[in-house]
Amino acid sequence: MSSASPWDGHGVVVTGGSRGIGRAIALGAARLGADVVIQYRVHEVPALQVVEEIHQLGRRAWAVPGEAAHRTDAQHLIRRAEESLGSIHLVVGNAGVDGSGPMAATTEVSWRRTLETDLYGPFALIQAAAPALRNTGGSAVVVGSISGETASPDSIDYSAAKAGVRAMVRSLALALAPGSRVNAVAPSWVETDMTASWHGSSVEREAIRRRIPLGRWGRPEDVAAAVLFLGSDDARFITGETLVVDGGDSLPGPLEGDFGRPDQA
Asked: Helices marked H in 86-154 — which ranges?
């Protein structure tokens, strides 16, 4: 009986791979047997730490600097990945930025920055990777958000970008069919640097926890598990879908949104 992983020899590319959800995806793929290329924008030291952790798992890894929203950087990333990995079986568009805040604080510059990074960025990645994915029958996964399905006066540009991700993924699934699949995940409140101002406050952290039916914040590994499922052969008949990973946060519930029962503390 062979002990080889079904991901042995697979090449995985992750944007925003130096921290948070991207880091969890990269490490999770390596644990499954894949070799990994991550893209980072400014956090070189954490990126190199991820590379070293993957090496310690016995897999190969590289870190490539670049801007997720730049088409030329996406093309460069995929060229480097093909040169390093040999073939690409999964690309993950994870890099993103938060919204601008209330409507009055949103400028043309901040609006463009959010939509270019959160919506055009994953498109540019998948566009660049499409030929490589067709060669391997590989797939793409985009990290979206339940903000694309819910309304908020404090993150209009972010909600618009994430709503666009869902529509884009459905259209890309048709564009890359039948040889490759495209899906997305939509997390809610996850403990990352982007949400530090909320989970770093004991009051806000608890208020958000109490509204989540499963009784806790999400962890990067929760989202990574969903991404790696969609990128695996177990999801071979799934394309154009968005998998919500939110602990039930987006479910209709009590007006107070209070699920803080003792058994869930």
From this structure: 108-115, 121-136
SS3 (DSSP) at 173: helix
Per-residue confidence (pLDDT) for residue 3, from 0 to 100: 59
pLDDT tens for each residue of 242-258: 999 999 998 876 545 55
pLDDT value of position 20:
95
The answer to whether 30 and 10 are in contact (CB under 8 A) is no
pTM assigned to the model: 0.91
Q: Please tell me the predicted confidence (pLDDT) of residue 101.
A: 82
Residues belonging to the active site: 145, 158, 162
Q: How far apart are the first and last CA of the chain?
A: 43
Can you tell me the distance from the alpha carbon of 30 to that of 167, in angstroms, rounded to the nearest whole number? 30
Q: How many Å apart are CA 145 and CA 143, to the nearest integer?
A: 7
Between the CA atoms of 115, 119, 120 and 125, what dihedral angle is there, to the nearest 10 degrees?
150
Band (pLDDT 50/70/90 cuts) for residue 262 is very low
- Give all domains of the chain, ordered by start, each with its CATH number: 11-248+259-264 (3.40.50.720)
Burial of 188 from C-beta contacts in 10 A (0-12 / 13-18 / 19+): buried
Burial of 92 (0-12, 13-18, 19+ CB in 10 A): buried
